[in-house]
Amino acid sequence: MKKMLMTVALCGLAMAGSAQKNMSQMSAKGQDPRGGVTRTRVHDVKLVGELTSTMVANNEIIKFDVDDVVYSITRDQDFLKNMEEAAHFRFQSAGQALNVLASHGWEVTSVYKTKGRQGDIIHYVLSRTVPMTPPYSPWLDPTFERGGKR
Question: How far is CA 16 from CA 2, 28, 29, 36, 106, in A?
Fold first, then answer.
């Protein structure tokens, strides 16, 4: 009985070792040839902007705003130029602003409403994917001042 139990245990160990070896080969397939794990690099980053819509004296006021840090995160000059022009452009309605920004690759992430002094303010949170640059750390930038000003 002991011999049979030992035989079954040895067969089980041999099968477990063989299965573990096969699993490690399957998980390393297409990765580092030495069998290690390779790291994945992020090539795109999602930047966030905000479009606000408010009614003042029966006129809809639309503003598109992006934080100043965005100018340090990306070096895509076409994107930065379009963003600067969109921030200064006077849109006629929220629909027009959303359509124009969508044509430039911006997507609505969320919408929320707040109460302001002159009525409700509708906030559209927009995001756009741009090529990744090295991480930006404002706490390491000696020219950065609190409040996002330079």
Answer: 21, 18, 20, 21, 52
125: three-class secondary structure by DSSP? strand
Q: Provide DSSP, 4-61.
A: HHHHHHHHHHHHHHHHHHHHHHHHTTTS-TTS-PPPPPP-EEEEEEEEEEEEETTEEE
pTM score, whole prediction: 0.63
| Residue range 42-81, pLDDT digits in tens | 677 888 999 999 988 888 999 999 888 887 777 778 888 8
For residue 105, the Cα-to-chain-centroid distance in whole angstroms is 14
Which three-class secondary structure string do you get for 52-118?
EEEEECCEEEEEEEECCCHHHHCCCHHHHHHHHHHHHCCCCCHHHHHHHHHHCCCEEEEEEEEEECC
Residue 28: pLDDT over 80: no
